Fold these 4 entries.
Entry 1:
Amino acid sequence: MSASSSFSSVVRKRFLQKSSSLFSSSFLTRILPGSVKNGVCASSFKEIRTTTTTTTATTIPSFFVQRKSENNWCWPCLVTIENFNSPSSSSAFRRSYASSSTELMTSRTSPTESAQQNNKEKKKKNKKKKKSSTTTTTSKTKAELEELKTLMDMKKPGKWYPLARTMQREIILHVGPTNSGKTHAAMERLKRASSGVYCSPLRLLAWEISESLNKFGTKCDLVTGQELKRVENAEHIACTVEMVDVNKVVDCAVIDEIHLIGDDFRGYAFTRALLGTPALEVHLCGDTSCVELIEKICKDTGDKLRIRNYERLSPLNVAEEHFSKKRLEQNIEKGDCFVAFSRKAVYALKSEIERRVPLRACVIYGGLPPEARSRQAELFNKPDSGYDLLIASDAIGMGLNLNIRRIIFNELTKFDGVEIRQLSSPEVKQIAGRAGRYKMSYYDKGGGVVTTTDDGMVLDGNRKNGDNAKSDIIKSSGVSGLQFIQNQLNAPVEALKTAGLAPTFEQILEYCSKVEGATLEDAMKALSSDAIVPKYYKMRKSDEVIRLAKYLENLGMEIEDHYTFSVSPTSVDCLHSMKTLMNFAKAFLNEGHVSVKLIPKSVNKHDRKSRADAQTRMNQRSVGILATLEEQHRAYDLYLWFARRMSAQFPEYSLAEALRVMCAHSIDAELQKLSTTATIESNSRKKKSEKKEEGSSKPVKQIEELDRKILRSAINRVNEERKNLSLLSKPATTKKATTTTSRQH
């Protein structure tokens, strides 16, 4: 064997051993000066491929394998590989291998290959020219990156509100369970203050506080996203927490349900109210879970903090036995409240109870308009209204004073939009605590009672896909439903770890100006995911806002209008709401004027071909009508929300408000009719076998006379607003009488 061949075999063996760790396929094509297209070194590459495929992911280019030449490595290739494999190879050689190998290749290449090499050199020259042109802008890009870094730095959110930081505020934190009097104590201070603001988590609660303050003699305005009711010479404001004015100095502020500061979606609004409300006294009402978090925030802002603890004013007892549905007629009593966690379950439970028991039930759930919720609560609390039961969702957990004797959990699980899960300890405490309200009918009768309808039903795991998974994850175990309730009531309070934050519109606008081509969606995603915040803060989940921004992206809106439409209270899961938003957006862009008439009609989806009995079909029809009215009410709410912010483009505020009020009263009337039909059926079943006597079958009142008058006045107001609108839009000489009726609603 010659010296060259032995050297070749040694180098090849070493190369095969180290190729997987040292070289990639693209690297080999650059360093080997041999003319690979003419077959030089092709056989060795073939050997490399068969050797390394089982041990490494390195892929040799296919044209090396396709060559059928059996030539060994050329001498320049052997020298190159040996130098790279040598431990003593210098870094200078490694840096200069490309130029040296190129010279060797040009001396051995064909004319076509030399042309390709020339093209490569031209490309390199063009790249150098581009680099030289970009050197002039490097200083600008560095400055922009620094500005972007500064924008993403949100370590001091308290500095966003300079007016509040100039004041020496005193924070009074009232903490305790439900029915402990913590909110009452804060409200008494607000009534005595010369000026103040009440920040509510719910529109309904803001409305109730406004009414109560005005009745007390403290003049108070009402400000929500959809409503603005001014009272002459008022120095107090009751508002939803998102609408608090951080530029108006007041004597006293009350922020209710402050523990919602940790909510993933709405927590940012409570953080903004806490950090930015310019008040000498800020009263916070919530449970004990938020104490440590509030202490950290107050330490950061420099505000003085005082904590007041409260205990429950009336006892709350867990029943010894669960509520048996089989013995519903014997077990049910006036003042009972059944809890379910979906609109469908609420109506199903209402229908079942009213068919079997001659009692009427009110309903309260999240999708019900605030006006209808308030009226249902009023009917339930009124002793002689004829409504002695309540079927509700977890919406009763805050904002309503209800005369409940016993809370009966019909379910111990709920679908939270992602998965079915068991009720958490705070949820059980919040709902169960509504029983035995202080200074109400059942306060002196042993306090409140909580129980469950099903025994031995607990959650064994988590699944997604909604109600279809419920039967798979709930199964009998050693823990009864009553024991589960008791455990959740006794569970220690989990401290909140983070408060919500949200980027402001100014920050979004600045991001879009600094990042070329950035859209609103890009800015929202970047500021939500890349912002640097303290450990006890978190950026809000902006999934719905981002979805709406993407939904409207192709309309060509200005970024300010695009942002306003994206943060609107539109339900992304409701097809009717999305259609309404798109109709508003198109009219806003094309005509500059948006009419209430653009709200699409809702379709009643009840099954007309159902094989159920006549009474069941009637109930299904009523539930379908209620769903339609609720969709229309949300659409009128959406119009009012835009009209509060773009009055010139959404000018029909009065008509939309009249339609919304009429819609709410129509919902309440339909609920009463639904209860009436079920009660009549229950009475007729009991008297079916008895001989009918004259006057023994008096029909139950379908709708309360007061509600009839309210609905009639609401209808008249709608007709008046439509008439006024038509007179404004037509010349005085062509006035026409309006013949619009309200039957279609």
Entry 2:
Amino acid sequence: MPDSTTCSGGSSPNRRRHHKRRREGRRNSFLRCALFCAYIFSPAQNEMSISSLISSPISVSDAFMQPLPTTQCRLHRQKNNILLVATEPNIDTDTLQKSTLEKMTVKELKSYMTDNNILIPRGEASNLKLKKNIVDFIWSRLNNNDDDSSTPITSSPKEAAPTTSSDDAAPKTNNRTKRPIGTRMPPLPESSPTSNNDNNNDSTYKLTPKDRIVLEVLDRYPPLHEAIVDACSIDSVLSEGITADNIEHCELNSLTYNVPPGIGENDMRHQYHPMLANATQTDMDVVFVGTASCSPGVTRGVSCTAIRLNWRNNREFDQVMNGGQRNKHDPQDQQRASTGGTWLFDAGESTQLSVQRTSSIKPGKISKIFITHCHGDHSFGLPGLLCLMGTDRDRDAPPVEIYGPEGLRMWLRVAIRYSVSRVVPPYRVHELMDVPMAPEWEEGHRRNGRFYYQLKSEGRKGMKWGTKGLAGEDSSSWISRAPMVNMEPNKDFGEIHGGQDIYPVYDHPKSTDGAPVWEVLDDGGVSVFAAPMSHGVPCLGYVVQEDDRPGRLMPENVMPVIERNRKELVESGVRNPMKLMALVKNLPVGGSYTFPDGTVLNQEDVVEPPGKGRKVVICGDTADCRALEGLAQDCDVLIHEATNTFLPGVDKEGTLRLVTRDAKIHGHSTPFMAGDFAKRVRAKRLVLNHFSARYKGDQSIESLTIMTRMERQAMKACELPENAVACAWDFMVLPVPRN
């Protein structure tokens, strides 16, 4: 590979090739102008050939004495030849041929252009990304070339050789057949035959990839299908609906229809999306309050995800534990009863508005808030949300526990104190200290931030997490300056003492590549862990882990034995023999109990095996979640961001590789990246969120088509079925069933 570096004033192969192309371009341009002028002003332009133009040129004065020709002239460059074509004025063409073009796929259209030497002028390639533009371009070229009597005139750009007869020189053999441009409209694939049989004129419409995904979306969501059919005026659509036979006549992009109403659990996607179609209510669910990135929009709010722990509403727990009675003296039961409420993860701008739009979230029930990082689309809504919670909360209620990276406590204290917000409820902030930057982020001068993503470092094995980006490293950063702010907590503004500084564990058994792990809390059978993400600022991902549940008692195996021994048990001093059910249930593994009649009940015979606790993983903004890989194994729900992707036909420029590169540079992911991580951790379900503002979240056909395509991309990477992958929408409620 030649070296592209050159000294000042020197030359290189690249520079020489550049000057050579410029010289050839000037030479070709001069020849084009000469041939064009000679042909236009020639009195016998229809009978002229390129050899006559060059061997017997006419003078400029004679040329200007001739009248202007009535024919049109077109010059075309093909490789090293100049094709000069004389054509008659445009004539109309049968519209059936354009419809044939519209039935072809983009790949077939490009192949058709190549086979028929329809070349793209310089600078026009960027405008030919969509199928409609390609069809219009080919159609315009075919109309300009539609003349049976025109003849191409060919010349070499360097030197036009005089014509020679076959007697003077042997003809050169050329096995490649070139169709002269301008002589005739090229035949279209599967063009209408010349037969007079009318039945042969009915060609079958070939579905495009876009048609297939639209039909799939309409089949999945019947209310949307009905709304579009009602707005359509085509008879076949009104009678049969949109099918593969009539979709070619439906102009969905220009059709005005009423989008099905409903938000939250009344959204039609809750009923028809494969992930939620057969879902049942449980005592744990996930509510997606906001699913956009950057800034809130009309159809999506910014990042906010809630986990509802409805332990107190768990009737099954009450009925099964201890033979149908809750043991008030069991510490585990007491913790289970007191644990619950709503845990919020991130509170982006306008979260307080989004919370009021859904009945799934009660501000007074929010007990804990977790912040992943300091960016505004994840934290700007926190002060306003606290003010909203204060209006619907008793001042004597337990304080709201807030967790987040270092620097959050002083930032929130300043924001509330500056705005004199005395309505906030009691709260305290626990900071996760020493959150490092990922090894692939290097310090440098960049407009977007202090760190930038180093592409050459990604995927490098052996890269260990260190102490890059910690407080004190940059004296001007907020986390370095916050401890110097002289402002103490004040209960008049809600903040109370007791906030902890939680430091990481570097030798945690589930740590990956030396990444630190934070044991955030252990609250009544539910634990929360955190690990660092690969983002432009210190960022965290959280894992909510439910403890394994003890096996349920099988009363049908115990009650007959108790009834058979009731008299003997009462005589031995057991006033209520039914209490033995709790004793038998709490037997240690391998233990047994012997009744008066000699019956022995083993623990494994009367108690079901322990149930594995549920696990929900919430990734923050990230270009790589590898630090969570150990903690997230076999998770029930993986919530992963998918800010951007490349969709052919929607994105006019770029490729998947370039979009992926741009996403990583900004510390974000694509559906393919999310699916790859879901496959590595063996996630049971994958939910994508944190979409770019250009991806709408409503129930329109455009939005649902794009979201379905993004789901397909993630499914391809993670190999999960369609009922296990979803693109989240605002106020989506996802139950997390027990294992």
Entry 3:
Amino acid sequence: VYRAAAFLAAAAPCALVMTPLAYISAISAIARRGVIVRGGKVIDALSSCDTVALDKTGTLTEGKLECIGITRIPSSNGLSEPHMMSPLEDTESLSLALAVSQGSTHPISRAVKKCSARAEAQNGFKTQDFRMIPGHGVEAVVENGERNYKLQFGSIDYVSKYLSEASSRQLDSLVEASGKDKVIAVLHAQPQSRGEAQSQGEMTSLFFFTDKVRSASATAVDTLQSVYKGKRLDVLMLTGDREANAMHVADKLGIKKVYASLLPEDKVRYVEEMRSDVSKSGHIAFVGDGINDAPALATADVGIAFANSTTAAAASAADVIVLKEGGDHISSLPYIFRVARKTKTIIKQNLILAVVSIVAATLPSVAGKFPLWLSVSIHEGSTLLVALNSLRCLLPESKWWVGAALLVTALMVPGFYFSKVMQIGVSLSQLGLGLSLGGLALMLESASAGLFAGALHSLTGPDHLAALAPLSMGRTTLAAGFLGGLWGFGHSMGQLFFGALFILLKSKLTLQLDLIENFAGAAVGLTLIAIGYVGYKEAKNFNFDRMRKEGGKKGKVLSKFSLATFGTGFLHGLSPDAIFPILPAITMNTKACAFAFVVSFLFGTIASMASYTAFIGVGSSALAQKSPDITRKVSMGSSFVAVFLGVALVLSAIFGIDLLQMGGH
């Protein structure tokens, strides 16, 4: 039985189960930059990408266009020579452009609305048959009682199809003379009544806009193209703007490959071609911000969208969402790729560490070479190392020494206090108080072992994460820590109760073993079902503002589920494998050592579970501030997982299928 217990403790795959914690850490670290990543699969895909295609307007540039001038192309009975006018002068063209821009959210349409407000230009037109053509522009029929026009407003290639040959030549000449630093849109107005057509003729106006390159774009592009861990990213530009302006921006940023004047379907085609022709790994990332980019975002292996909210059209098709409010925009891109590659390395390290520790501890445990306490320590220690290694994603990049300092502190502080306590013990023994130095040392050793076992047991049990997550999601730090500590206290009481029952009935244990195994599965299953149900109810009615207000009222949130939390923790502790961490107390030399071990184990469990749950609470509160809907979905998802696992364990207990040994503790 002793060897079997050691084998079960050593072979439990908790370290393997904790390996994906690196994905959670990476997603949390990236979220600090105002970036939302849709799962661990996206992290894997990001780490494999070696080519990044960038949109121009709103991605590399600010996307806040400003109208600086309007030039009319003379008609047969109109102006003799074209010349640029201020938007304040040509209010007629501005009013027509405003009429057709009301139903569009494109940066050019927003710039026209802003310019019209500054020029106090009135719309005054009734719009009919409005149509928005992605990648081209907008068109509509407008009238104000006296005049009736059919308008096209958009790209040069789109509007040129409606112009005469002479007007097209003039348009090309004006565009070529305008320079490379301007964004150009063309308005074409065709009178609908015969009288207006004869008196006025067609009107064609060129709108000139400026768009500033983001201050961080050059640094971001240079960082993306630099070598990181033996890999570099190829950066390209895919844009719907004219080639001259695209090349002008690309030259400023150091982008060598540019594809301009692209429609949304053209961007999709180029992304598919680059996957086989340009990328060595076959993985492409596309970065955009508008509705025209949505097809390319969905086609790429990783779509990265700059959006004001998670409900924007581009965001709905993306795998990564860079929120413009509070986010660091383009400068976040290099960080995202670095974290993804770092996470992939950490995942490999975790797998190697977990497999090696399980194999190295299992065989000696079966042979009886490793005692139970050593098997438990290797099992819990390897799981904790996997967890700590995963948390490296949360450390600041430039402060790698923080992790080393924490590790050194974790090793030195207990040693320092242990030496102080030993000095006190020596002093007491010298004073003749009858306290044995050897006995004190054994008690301190037992207490430190109990504290170590309690903390490791709490932090490395995957079932603890499943149980505590629904109770902590969306709560304040104080409320989450309180509930976690209370659940840990109930869990320890259940363990001690079952341990005492184990000792009293050990002579009959061989006859009741199957019954106890089934009872263990049912106990854990019922616990997870209860916790999942409570967590689902909380998530369903979750309101972050209300939670934050109630968090300041003493006793209201903290005592709401106190009794239920303690009860579920107690029930969860009534499991045979839950007593493995405290079995070393039975083998202690003296009752004082056993007592010190159990008390320290209890303290370590409560403190670590309180910290564990508070940490989850802090993360969920931060996420709730960004997006309460995501917090609610995560909380409900974790509740469903807990209920599903609970039902599976209860059914396994009923039908005699042992899932505890399959899942570990």
Entry 4:
Amino acid sequence: IRDAHRYFQDRTSWRSTPSALGGLERVHQLGVDAMCLLVSSHLTSAGPAVRMKRVVKSDNDDVTVTSRFEVPIVAASTESASSTRKRLSAALHNRDLMKSVGEYEEFLPLDTRQVRELRAIFECLGGEGLTFNTSLKNRNKSLGDGRPSLQMIQPSKNVKVTRTEKVGSGCYTKLVKQPLKTGHPHLDAYGEARKAVAFASIDGYYRHIRLGRRKELQRHRSAMNTGALSQDSGSDADGVARDAVRCLEHAMVVVAGEKSIYRCVVSPTSSHTHDEAKVPREYKLALVESYSHVAAAVVDRCMDIIETVFVKDAGVNAFASSNNNPSNAANTGGAANHSGGAGGAGNAPNGPNAPGGANDPNTSTPLSNIRATANAAAAGLRILDGVRMLGPSLAKLCHMSSHDSRSSQEEQMSVAGHLCIGIHRTTVKNCAKTLENLAKAIQNDPLDGERHRPKDARVAAVSSDAVKAIRLICPFVSAYKSVTKRRALPWDPNIGEEAGDLDSFIRFLIMRLLNSLQGKMLNYTRDPGLDSMAKSNLFMINNTFYLLEQLTPTSGYYQPDDEIEGDKFKIQNPWFKEKVGKIFENEKNKYLSHWEILNRHLTQVDKHDLSYQNNQVLTLESGRLLKSRFSGFIEDFENIYPVHKELTVIDPNLRDMLQRDVKSVFVPRYGRFYEKYSKIHFSKKNMDQYLRYPPSLIEEMIDQLYVQQ
């Protein structure tokens, strides 16, 4: 057809030339449209370029059976952070990353006939077959169908990735929604067809694992005989974070599969007659743009999945907005009104002043309590751990060089490349917010309420929650460093190499926790009653001892860097033991001083002041000296003991320690006093009343102190 077209172009004087040229152009366009339709049909019907990985098993006859099972290769719900890092690090080191990530593997979904047809089409339309004008540059300038020129669509360093779509909508930015217009209809057909398939692959995978997690949660609820999860479980932030990392791994496999299709049938290098010098620059840029169009849809979906975890499951923005409300912050540590009723209806059944509402001091909202923010922070660090390790490899898979020496590397970066950078930036930003929210949740923990300031001065929930929070974030040392390298934080204004490590953040959390505990201790002293001071001291003793027991390493303890999980974590830096230990000793000494008052009655009586009647009974004046001492001790003991009897020490080691220390304050002295003066008959009728507390009984009563009521 092209030869015939050229034939008539050389014979413009003929009357039939215009109609012949028009007919040839219509036939040519029909052929181009048909080939583009075939390209779209083949590449759409081929389906995803991924399949389940092979699982090799041996039966009883030692026969190796290779088959594919729809089960995860890695136990994603139980794999620890260190195990994930080891798996990915080993894969990166051995350059077999694609064999170690995800549950799927890349493969070519096209059969031989389809590959042959597609290659023929791309060789034809990628050369001079697309147009009668052999000059691609001139053809690009003369496009009259409304399509932009190639010069307009080539990648630019000015591309800015920002969220333009609703969170959770399945799309992050409108850049990937724009139709592909390269000026080459066969590349447009390829890009649009594979974009739809690739997006469906990553989107379907995410929906599948999300549905599986919902079923798992439903089974858990049924087993617990409850229709809803507890507040502490929150929205299962750790689970959805693991799902996000799994989606990131799956995205790498999907993009790798799409790259295989591109290289097999689209790239000019797949042709045996390929000559790089004959491929126009504009066509190279169009090839890059078409491949980026496919890869960008996958990366964009991953960005939306990751940010959905932060915004909807981790609630980073919800906590920030609730913390800006000063009235709620004063009462509930920044708790927002999530009652579901009218925000200002304080008298409504579900209003903020109702039990369990935002202003109820006994509760914190699910998005602002320490456990929820700790789960969110750990989830953010887990996602960032995956992004920092997989992000560079994903960017390489998305990159397709145009071999254009006239453009810088930044100018050659496609939309997919900018999205890969955007994943890391947004993850770092949101992860920093979760860390700040955790610190604010500890600092703003309510000062009153049974859960926050127990009546019996036992360990407060804020202490156990803070310890759990530290243990949740401790495995992510490298991920935390990725945050501080790029963002200044309230507790660490430095960035880059000068920024602090995870220990500095843990120290900040401990200091915020101690400030919160001291605020609660101060509120104990404002309570009416004789036990207010004793409660304040014992409250700090309970909490500081708990922190020391949970986070201080024992002798011979060894903690390898970046490999600690959960309950094994200890703060090895000496500042912790020195700071918390000093507070513990000071408060214990203050608490024991409450018992010191008993010793003022146990003073010796000078022998010259004791005079007897008939050498057996003391005179009235001498008897009063001993009576006043015994009666004073009994009165103070009976006043002090009931006060301390109501207090609780859960830890048996601390309880034994306090019982011994309380005894050491006055019992030895009381024993000597009792032993010496109980032998003297200083009362004619009431000796039993003055001696009703022998030292052995006192010790038995002290042994009953601090037992949980």
